[in-house]
């Protein structure tokens, strides 16, 4: 299974990218759609929101009045944190159900508006950021969604900055052209990177002739993915760009982590040495035990 995190600022055009990926065969797990589902009338999620923010967030028919909730929840950091604490666990649980149902060979694309803010990037093989500058996003939100300009700017300001998004981006997809141009870029990405990456992960196979990229922030992303993959079985993870060294915890043998590393996109080439399965980036990982840390 290949897991891709898809995100970008409100109004950036994630839905266009997600629809094209779905047409190509990806399984889309839409965070916004699930967020609506878990607060439908009669759900524990809606009851919790009413308890936290009051009945003024309800429409006349008992459903959630989203503009009314947004006016309260996005007014200050404490209210926004309360909203997130209620909805995020519910969205996470439902998302996991859909991922499990998709099957082991699927390409899963999780469309998560707050992926960066929730520090979820290490959970994915790839993170795609869809980008449009803030002024264009305001124009789209006002023109296409009927949002007041002040509200649009407040929503944008409450989300991650472009710099924070760049720090987690494996793929920076600029959605500044026509819709046809965006769809063409997605199709090329699917054919040249996503499909071969997924095949390599499913076979626990390293990528052939992957390029070395100049990406100063990648070392931190690589370390995060290795920590998520290995958890307490790792004593230390250090990186120098796309080269990583893992020392396993006491009593943990390399055989215990080979499959997990392969599933995460790091295929064993020989004992103690792994290469990345991503055809878009050369990655090397050296794994050793505490006893042999100085020689692997």
TrEMBL record:
InterPro entries per UniProt: Depp_CoAkinase, P-loop_NTPase
PROSITE patterns in alphabetical order: DPCK
Name listed for the protein in its UniProt record: Dephospho-CoA kinase
SUPFAM superfamilies to which the protein is assigned, alphabetical: P-loop containing nucleoside triphosphate hydrolases
EC number annotated for this UniProt entry: 2.7.1.24
Family note: Belongs to the CoaE family.
Gene Ontology biological-process entries: coenzyme A biosynthetic process
Principal localisation: cytoplasm
Pathway: Cofactor biosynthesis; coenzyme A biosynthesis; CoA from (R)-pantothenate: step 5/5
Enzyme class: transferase
Organism from which the protein derives: Tsukamurella paurometabola (strain ATCC 8368 / DSM 20162 / CCUG 35730 / CIP 100753 / JCM 10117 / KCTC 9821 / NBRC 16120 / NCIMB 702349 / NCTC 13040)
Binding-site residues, ATP: 11-16
MF (Gene Ontology): ATP binding; dephospho-CoA kinase activity
N-terminal signal peptide: none
Compartments reported by the entry: Cytoplasm
């Amino acid at each position: 299974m290949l897991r891709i995190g898809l995100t970008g600022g409100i109004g950036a055009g994630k839905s266009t990218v997600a629809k094209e990926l779905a047409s190509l065969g990806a399984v889309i797990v839409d965070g916004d759609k699930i967020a609506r589902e878990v607060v439908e009338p009669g759900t524990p999620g809606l009851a919790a929101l009413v308890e936290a923010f009051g009945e003024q967030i309800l429409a006349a028919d008992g459903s959630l009045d989203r503009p009314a909730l947004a006016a309260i929840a996005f007014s200050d950091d404490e209210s926004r944190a309360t909203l997130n604490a209620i909805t995020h666990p519910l969205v996470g649980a439902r998302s996991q159900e859909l991922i499990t149902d998709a099957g082991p060979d699927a390409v899963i694309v999780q469309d998560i508006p707050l992926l960066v803010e929730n520090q979820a990037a290490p959970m994915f093989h790839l993170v795609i950021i869809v980008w449009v500058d803030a002024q264009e996003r305001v124009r789209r939100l006002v023109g296409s969604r009927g949002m007041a300009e002040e509200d649009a700017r407040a929503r944008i300001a409450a989300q991650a900055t472009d710099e924070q998004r760049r720090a987690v981006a494996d793929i920076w997809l600029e959605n500044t052209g026509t819709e046809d141009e965006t769809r063409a870029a997605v199709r090329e990405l699917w054919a040249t990177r996503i499909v071969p990456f997924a095949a390599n992960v499913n076979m626990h196979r390293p990528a052939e002739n992957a390029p070395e990229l100049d990406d100063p922030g990648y070392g931190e992303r690589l370390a995060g993915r290795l920590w998520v993959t290995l958890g307490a079985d790792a004593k230390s993870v250090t990186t120098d760009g796309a080269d990583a060294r893992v020392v396993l915890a006491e009593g943990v043998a390399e055989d215990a982590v080979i499959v997990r590393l392969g599933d995460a996109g790091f295929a064993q080439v020989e004992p103690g040495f792994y290469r990345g399965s991503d055809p878009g980036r050369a990655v090397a990982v050296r794994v050793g035990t505490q006893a042999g840390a100085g020689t692997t």
